[in-house]
Structure formats: C-alpha cells, structure tokens
Structure of HD domain protein:
Amino acid sequence: MPLRYIGEITDPIHKNIKFTLVERELIDTFIFQRLRRIRQLAGAHLVYPGALHSRFEHSIGSMFLAGLAGQTLLEKGYLDSDDMIQNLRISALLHDIGHGPFSHLFEEVLKECTTHSHEKLGERIILDTLITDILQRNGYNPITISSLSFGKHKTRFLNEIISGGLSVDLMDYLPRDSYFSGTEYGKVDYHRIINSLEVTNSKKLGISRSALYSYESMLISRYQMFKSVYFHKTVRSGEVMLLNAMKCLNSVLNLTDLSSLDSFFELHDEKVLGMLCDVRDPSLGPKEISYVNLAKDYKKRELLKCIYEYFSLSRQRQELRPDEAIKNTGEHLKSDKKKRIFDAQVSKLKSIIGKYQASGEQVFLDISSAPSIPLAPKKEEVSSIMVVDKKDEYEKSFDQIPLIYVISGYLDMIRVYTNKENRKFYETIIKDSE
C-alpha cells in the first residue's frame, strides 16, 4: 500500500518534502525539535556566515532521499512492500537523533570521558523514550528502526542506504553543506545515482554502470568539501577552541553526565557555549579560567592562529590481502612511508608543545584524519564499488577508476594553533626543531 502523505515541507535543496502521519509525530517531538539548535557544521559559520543550517534540516532531507531510494528498489523488485520504504524513511529521519551540541566535537569529548557515541545515544533514544511509544503506536518496531539507523540490520544493502558511500546521508549533507556555505564543491547528481541503485546477489548495494561518472563526481565533491570547508584552517581554529574548552571544563559542567537523557536533551550549541563562558566556580584554577576565556574569545570570534600545517594523503590503513599486496606493493610501501613520516611529525610536535601545554600555555596540536572515501556502515574501509550491468554484476576496484584512486585513502592533517601574543615564539621553536 503506497505511503499516505499528509503534508509537505519546503526545502532549499529538495524543494518539496512530503511527510506521513508517523513522520510528523516524530518531527514534532521536543527530542527531534532539539536538532534545530545543533548546527550541522559546528564552527563553519565563523568562515562561511551562511553555514548556520542544523541537524534538523539534514535529517528531514535524508528521510526524503531514503524514500526515493526505497521506491527505486521496490520498483526493481529488491523490496517486498511499501512498509520497508516507511521504515527506511523513519530510520534516516532518526539517524542523527543522538548528536550532542557542536555535533562531532561533542563526540570527541564523549569518547574521552565515556563509552558513549552519538550512535549509542541514538539507539537509547529510539528504544527508550517517547520516540519508542510513537513508533509502536503506529505499528513500527523500534528495534528494526534502530538497527537500520545505525548500520546493524541483518540485510546489508538496507544499512548501506542510510550510511556509507552510496548513502542518503552523504547525498544530503554534501549539497546542503555546499549550498549554505556558499561554495560550489558539493554538487551531487543524487537523482541519477538513486535511480541507478541495484542490489547484488550477495545483498550488497551497488549502482548501474551508466552512473559511475555521477558516483565518481560525488566522491570528488566530498574530498573537495573536506579540504575547503570541513578542514579549513580557520574553521578548525574555532573548533579547536570549543573542543578544548569543553574537555577542560567538563568536570565542572558535567556535560557528559548521561545518567539521565533529560539533561542531555537540554544541551545545544548556544546553551553549552553560554555555560562555557559563564563558569564562575570559585575553585577554578588559572588553567580552567584560561579555558573560560578561550570560550569567550570564540564567541567574539577572536580566534587562535595557525602557525604550522602539514597534510598527507595516505592509502588504506588496513592490511592488504595477499593478491592486493602483490599488485600494489609499490603503492603500499609509499603509503606506509607517508604514515611513518606523519607519525614522526606528530611525535615531534607533541614533545615540543606538550611541556608548554602542561604548564597552562594556550598552544594546541590539532591532529585530524578523515577517510577520503566514506566508510561502510560497520566502519570498515571501502576500496571498490559494486556495479550491475544488465544481467552481469562485478566489483570494480577504485584502482580501476583513476580519479577516485588518486584521492582514496586517508586525509591526514596536523596543525598547531596558538594566540596572537605567542605566535612568533612558537613559530621559532617549531622552525628551530626542523
């Protein structure tokens, strides 16, 4: 039975997004509405003023694309009924429900202080809140929704619709982030890619051969967005300030006390920034006070300066299979050398900066790494795409797609940030160590 839509939302990326009754009930909850106050790109608005969009819009956009993907797979006979389309739409709608303030920055604080992640929080929210009640009342299984949202469903290709290299998550955030940042890098022909979706005999998600160029273009767009927006040195400056302020002041503010979800639901970007700036605990030492001032500087956009930068693109971190090792020995050795150089740089800078940072100096080492090709739902690396051509199917390795192969691997980055007053001092120290 086709989905019964009861209204629509106007969206700058997808134009008109229709919604069903259960979707409206979920969107109208205070839990989902909270996503309006969590920016998709944390500190990017300090460089790109229009990048103020939130997890709220992205989640609704992902829901829309999940519906398109589900419809395509239903028409091609890979799904049994419209019910799975609704399951996919709900799962995409809720895939970011566990994100905290400043999105991935809060995730780093969680990892340092707890065993939680936004996925674990998302599972908890779907399985043990009023979201659970709404799903059950409308005839949907919260366990199924949770498994689809976070890559744990028994059917692999269904997981890959929500996250991974052919996911609706990727196909929404690239054009959305590009649009609101005002850049031109995130152009994605997602209609072409979604219409070409296929499922292989081994239940993997793939595409028809005719859409390979669109797929290639999407991955290149992602790589460009990482270099120009997500890893922009001034964007990262603001994020380094927020991250370190949250880490240092967490013991005072209890940001990661998740014994009750009620306190978590109260947290959002502006509230946490206000909390960081307004800490007035008389027991604070000079170090903690300096981090309160760091948060205040962020709020005023008085940002740290980047005084050192090192980029490296290395190949896959995983061990090569024997057949791959024979074929790619030269590339593997080159990549291994790059990784050793990168690790040596990190070690050297930690030894230089560590003693100053331990004494309370505001100098920060920012080490970031991102896979240039999106990871699969279970976080394993991806080095190929499944291609279906008429009645034939095959796995096409990225080394057979030159433009993708050039950018495949990990984008590794090291930067050193400090305040204006100490800029010359640390520049000299780092230069003298080379």
